[in-house]
Amino acid sequence: MEKRNGRFAIIEQLLADGIRYMFGNPGTSEEGFLDALSDYYPEFEYILALQETIAVAAADGYARSTKKPTVVQLHSGVGLGNGIGMLYQAMRGHAPLVVLAGESGIQYDAMDAQMAADLVSMAKPVTKWATRVVHPSSLLRVLRRAIKIAATPPMGPVFVSLPMDVLDAPNEEEVVPTSIPITRVAPEPEAIAKAASMLATASKPLMIVGDGIAYSDAQAELTRVAELTGAQVWGSDSSEPNMSATHPLFGGLLGHMFGEVSSRITSQADVVLICGTYVFPEVFPALSGAFAPNTKIIHIDLNAYEIAKNFPVDLGIVSDPKMTLAKLGAELEKIMTAEQKRLVGQRIAQIAETKKQHMTEQFEADKAVHDIVPLHLSQFAEELARHLPPNAIVFDEAITHSEELCRYIPPTTLGHYFQTRGGSLGVGIPGAIGIKLAHPDKTAIGFSGDGGAMYTIQALWTAAHHNIDAKFVICNNRSYRILKLNILQYWQEQQLPQAEFPASFDLCHPDLRFDELARAMGVQAVRVETPEQIKPAIAQALFHNGPFLIDLVISNEVPGAIG
């Protein structure tokens, strides 16, 4: 196209980079840009969200599933403000989002006009990089830089402010694919030898891992090192199956809220290997005592910032987890003595038996509440597991009920189970929408609590509007259950007697009818309140051609609460 302007050039650049979706909510300052989209349909498609939070969350789900740059369009300062909470989620979760926001134009900078705002300053705290295009000749150069930064590990969201007059101006820049550097770097042999020596001589080794394992596809290498050392593996800032949850050495996830929960586990080890994560991501982390005195700490990550950020380490290695764990496994096999291997076998057997007993107790406890009304999620999850296709993808924002869900649909395979991360509520429904767009041939099912669902319930309209065949389950316990659990901890810490929970923790009077809300936005839905309704609802959801929601009414009991 001769003398095409910037609004066309930017779409051509995105197409050159294999980007075919834009998630957004339209505004006046982007109207010329959005008007150009029709010229590129169906190669390039706009996924319309009714609020900016939903656009960011759906893009986050798509980006997490594809591990590729994903474009979000927001509107000026007000739209960016709406999306900032979910951008924080994307930043904490290292999602490679490229966020574009329109503004009225450079020519109006001096006017302090309606909706004028310093967009770059607003975006900086929740992005990896934020900038503004100030001249038409650098529009595509800046966009390519943004895509490169978003997609280079450690991945993360970036922000580009697009003045309207820059987009309307002629653009003669050449469209070329973005150059994204390869960051798979291997450690020095001496570092591998030192790490292997520490682990081989450990009597109580422990591994702490996060989503850096998933991003580098290192699940097999991680599992091998765990088996060679007899180390129990715990997730920290871990929202994907970095190790199969069914493996005997997988201990679960460390505390999300309170550091003392994690410290009870981490302080028992004499050698700790941290890989692909940071320590520690709790809301109230331990300021000290997370590790026992004289514990040896090894930290492997591509992000040098995270190594020794909060606690000193004995060996920090900036390198790719997959390559490093592979070399570490080979070195361990080479140096470990017969006696060390015998002790490892004993440790594995003991850890496996303890885990087996714990799981048996949990399954027995679940059986004890079967057929009780209000229902427990465990009964629904057990039935769903019988019917869910093997290639199904689960997005789990069940929060306080995630443990029950994972017992029956355990996270085992990379790319097939995603949990919430970052702390922003409302990712479950739009996250499942993004995943289904990324994998139209697979069943995608999103779980959300009732509190989280109400943050982004409008996402159901997007699913219906674009006929995105995702399935949704709302765990409707009529409360902010996590707040009730947390205040129990607070009362205990402050040595206060238990009292009635604050009224603001309850979501009832009036009752939230998610089935009716869904149908009002074009999504078929059923409400499940009794045991006999579970199986028919699951069958209806899975066989329905189009989005479908199950409003699952479950118990709001709080373990540990008196009365």
UniProtKB/TrEMBL annotation:
Keyword Glycoprotein: no
Family note: Belongs to the TPP enzyme family.
Domain Thiamine pyrophosphate enzyme central per the UniProt entry, residue ranges: 192-328
Protein name: Benzoylformate decarboxylase
Keywords: Thiamine pyrophosphate
Entry GO MF terms: acetolactate synthase activity; flavin adenine dinucleotide binding; magnesium ion binding; thiamine pyrophosphate binding
The keyword Nucleotidyltransferase is annotated on this UniProt entry: no
Domain of life: Bacteria
Entries under Pfam families matching the protein: TPP_enzyme_C, TPP_enzyme_M, TPP_enzyme_N
Gene3D superfamilies: 3.40.50.970, TPP-binding domain (3.40.50.1220)
Phylogenetic lineage: Bacteria, Bacillati, Cyanobacteriota, Cyanophyceae, Chroococcidiopsidales
Domain Thiamine pyrophosphate enzyme N-terminal TPP-binding: 5-115
Thiamine pyrophosphate enzyme TPP-binding domain location: 404-551
Gene name per UniProt: mdlC
GO cellular component, one term: acetolactate synthase complex
